Each structure stands twice: as C-alpha cells, then as structure tokens.
Amino acid sequence: MIRKLSSVTAAVFAVAMVQLGNAHAQSANEINTSTMKIDFMGAVHLEETGIVVAGHNGLVGTLVLEGEEAILSTFDDVPNEDYTAIQKISASEAFIGASNGKLYKLSGSSVQFVGEVSEYEEPVLDIAHLNGVTWVVGARGMVARSTNSQDFEILEIRDVNMPKVNFPGGQPADWYLGVQNLDTDTLEFKAFVNGKPAISDEHYLLYPDEGFIQVHEQLDMNPPPSVSTRFAPGPPFRGGDVSWNKVLLSEGLITLAGEFGLIIQSKDGGETWVRRNTKIVPREPEPAYWMSGVQNGDNLWLAGAAGVNAFSKDNGKTWRNNAKPGREGIFGVALADDGTPVITGAVGLIGQFKNNDWELADRTELRILSWLKNPVVLPDGGLLVLGGRATAISLKEGQYKKINVRLANEAG
Length: 412
Description:
The protein has one helix and 38 strands. It has two domains: 2-159 and 240-410, YVTN repeat-like/Quinoprotein amine dehydrogenase (Methylamine Dehydrogenase, Chain H), CATH 2.130.10.10; 160-231, no CATH class. The strands form nine sheets. The chain has a seven-stranded mixed beta sheet, with no helix packed on it. Strands 1-13-12-11-10 form a five-stranded antiparallel beta sheet, with no helix packed on it. A five-stranded mixed beta sheet has the order 2-3-4-5-38, with no helix packed on it. The chain has one helix at residues 363-366; strands spanning 2-4, 40-46, 50-55, 59-66, 69-74, 83-88, 93-98, 102-107, 110-116, 124-130, 133-138, 143-146, 153-155, 160-166, 173-176, 188-190, 192-193, 196-197, 204-207, 212-215, 226-231, 244-250, 253-258, 263-266, 273-276, 290-296, 299-304, 309-312, 320-321, 330-335, 341-345, 350-354, 357-360, 372-377, 383-387, 392-396, 399-402, 404-407. The protein is mainly beta.
C-alpha cells in the first residue's frame, strides 16, 4: 500500500553511534579541543562544492583538505537540527536527514526544509539517489521515495514474498524461518513422514506469528521438507515495525536491509518485495543487524552489529558471510578505487579486506579517539573516513594517515 503525503520526507537514523571511544590515550597537546564536540554523522563529495559534512547541532559545512590538515567551514543560517544522513543528488545538491524525521535539501550552501514522513519523529537512517529517484529509510518501517526530489510517497511494506526454501534437516525441533507474522493463506509447508504427507497437529505445529514450525516426528529428507510463504517484516504481532537501516539502488532494483537480518528487494519500484538470504535453523536464530552497505554493479556488501559482514556477486540474490574482524559494530563500508572493501566502525575500527580476511589498522598508532562511520570516495580515488570527535583518516593506495581537523577561523 502507498500513502501519498503532501510535504513528505523521510526519517530515521542509526544505530549505535553512541559508542564514543576513549579507547586510546593521547597527550593533551596533540588534541584539538575546539573540535572535540564535533561528530561527523554524514559526508559526501559534490563536484561543485567539495566534501560536505553534516552532524549534530546544526552542523552542515565543507571540509577542505590541505596536506595533513582539513579546514572545516560551516554554513550560515542552517536549521538547528541533529543531522544523521546525507546523500548527493547532483553536482551541487544533497538531501540531508535529521534525527526527528525531517528532510532538508542542500543547494550550494543553503539548507531548506523539504518535509517529514515519520509520525513518530524517528531519525533518518539512510538516503539513496539514482537516475532522479530518491529513497529514504529508517526505523519503525519508514520507507519513502520521490521521483522529483520534492514530493515523497510513504511505502508501507507489510507483504514480502519468501520463495521456496528447503530445510537442512528433518529432526524433531522448533524450526525457525527467520521471519515472523507469516501469512497462513499463502504458506506452503511440504514434508513427508515415512513416504506420506506430514499431518498438521500430529507431525508438526505451525506458529505463524512467531515464525517457526514445531516438528514432532522425524521428517523424510528425500525429498527434503520445504516451505514458502508471505510475511509482514517486523517482530511477532507487529508486522511492519522494522528498522530499515540501509537502502541500495541499481538499475531497476531496490535493496533494503536492517533488523532481523532482513534483506529484501524490489524490481518494480517498491510495489512488491522478495526476501533474500533465507536460512532455516532448528533453534531460535541470532540474526544479523545490518547497519551499512555499498553497491558497485552486481557486487554488494553489507555489514553491521558485532562485526557481521557479507557480500553478494549476483546483485543481491545470494549472499556469503565473511569472517568477522572482531566484535565491534561496523558503521560504514566502502569500496576503494581498486575494489578493496574498507570497513569503519566502533571504537576507531578501520580495516581493509585482503587475502580473504580483514586487515585492521593500528588504532593507537593513528591516535583514533572515537568511532568512524563515513568513508567518502574522493576524485583521486582515495578515501576520507570521518567520524566522532572530528576524527578524519585518509586512505590512499592502502596507506592510512591521520588528518587534523581545524575550524576555518583557527586555520593558519
């Protein structure tokens, strides 16, 4: 179902940016105390403006690199909001989302209100833009789209298709599907006991709201049990109430990821949705919590809480998990100029994926005092990674360098 709002926008932000790390000590004369309260919550590179950053307390401005320093110049007359996400929409324009569900448009150095969509004043979590179409996502099921960069529609995702998937075993157990709020009218569970169809209430019980099938008898594995269904994403009895933390766009395809390990895709502009990466397990699952992602052609990467990360090489249809770099949350992921995946996250996490494993930077050597979230791809192919406490790290040709951020009125 689609509800059209007159002045819309999108809402919802993030996850656990509150993990400000005092992890590594640094002597007082090495710290620029004037920028310690600045958190870069979002950043993009605009061809006509350069690097634009957004953050709490009305922070919107430019960051100009000068050797091993970056000069921060803030824009005037910016609404005093806590900004949580930013996305380029042209060479000089970007959408900026706030923590209260409001959306703003940056044009040059002017920040103007566009609208709001979250009736619960939830923060904007992510924004994506491709070929004139903008998507904004966030908590409590918030999804909005615009085809003219001005008027937004709210999409209520309460009906997702889970294609047929086989069970990995047939032993008596509570087999969880990884989704709740199953539509019993569309659910097809095919299983056999000693060559005969399994009988409901005798061989198994279905718990559609909780999303599991309780098997009482050993099921045949030739053919294996299988299930397909439609469902409303969200926790039991609260269909639609799910945090969508990441939206990725490619030609003719939208990918959403967020809570409960959910990855769903639409090929028709959001009219219908299909679940990806379905796993059935004989116990209550511990699903991923996706917080970040990136797409380059058919290659997609997702990452999230507790170091979980996965990739797809077929435009999101199938997924493969990677080794975790640790237990820290991964707040950002990007692809370097040579295609190397780069992650950023809690307590100064930053690393590159090489030789099928994560090589992490030495946070003490780089003097990282806080979380990192925002990898910005620069015109020269390098990355500038930004985060809390005005932290900035450059990454070029595999080498890290700490960048000292100064306010424009202090520069020189």
